[in-house]
Amino acid sequence: MMSAYLRSSVFGLALCFSLPALAGGAGSYSVKGNNGTPNTDYSGSLTITQTSKDTFKLNWVIGDEKYVGYAVGDARIMAVSFTSGGSNGSALLVEDDAGGYKSIWAFNGEKQLGIELIKPK
């Protein structure tokens, strides 16, 4: 007969393995996205650095383009303002069940909405 302690330990361990992974916030990620129109798929990398309790710096490298962004939020949801080569935009990153993020983004003044899948490296 299993002791109560052993049963609760086994149950707790099983529960840990069955929960979805949480997004990590700060770290290195791979990125796959689309600019919102056919045949505009891209891939690259993203580094997220936590700069305070509720702020982050994001650095994307997509091909030979670099984007720098600043976000408010937490490791689950981030609202981002980003810039690259004189263009500015906004993004929203929301954690997914795989330890990364799903993101929508747009350049300021544009009507196209881009998407990104962001996965931990």
Major sheet strand order = 1-2-3-4-5-6-7-8
**Series of secondary-structure elements, N-terminal to C-terminal:** HEEEEEEEE
Biggest sheet statistics: 8 strands, antiparallel, barrel
Distance between the ends: 43 Å
What is the class in the CATH system? Mainly Beta
Oligomer: single chain
Work out the count of structural domains. 1
Strand content: over 45%
**Global outline:** globular
Cα-atom radius of gyration: 18 Å
Question: Can you describe what's shown?
Answer:
There is one protein chain. The termini are far apart. The chain is mainly beta. The protein is globular. It has a single domain, classed as Quinohemoprotein amine dehydrogenase alpha subunit, domain 2 (Lipocalin, Beta Barrel). It has an eight-stranded antiparallel β-barrel. The protein has one helix spanning 4-18; strands at 27-34, 41-52, 55-62, 65-73, 77-84, 87-95, 101-107, 114-120.
Provide a quick synopsis of the model:
The protein has 121 residues and is mainly beta. The chain is 12% helix and 56% strand.
Q: Which characteristics define this entry?
A:
121 residues; mainly beta; Lipocalin; eight-stranded antiparallel beta barrel; 12% helix; 56% strand; globular
Give the helix/strand layout.
Elements: H1 4-18, E1 27-34, E2 41-52, E3 55-62, E4 65-73, E5 77-84, E6 87-95, E7 101-107, E8 114-120
Antiparallel strand pairs: 1-2, 1-8, 2-3, 3-4, 4-5, 5-6, 6-7, 7-8
